[in-house]
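A brief tutorial aside. Many learners find it easier to grasp structure tokens once they have seen a single protein encoded end to end. The record that follows does exactly this for Hemin uptake protein HemP. Read the sequence first, then the structure, and try to relate runs of similar tokens to stretches of the chain.
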Amino acid sequence: MHRSYDGMGGTQVTDRPTANPNVDEQRQTAIVSGDLLQGRRQVWINHDGTLYCLKATSNGRLYLTK
């Protein structure tokens, strides 16, 4: 698990893909944000019936909100 700090007092905890050559069938790949956004500033994602909004900020950050 990777912890990063946003510089504003908040903490974000994320799980990042890890390389494990012994588990090929469970390999995780990263998706390029541009592939999701396709030139837009925000996209809506339906995950198990719940809508989330993925937004790109002017300073290059991504925010996912419910």
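Self-check: Residues 2 and 14 are 6 Å apart (CA to CA). If you spotted this yourself, you are ready for the next section.
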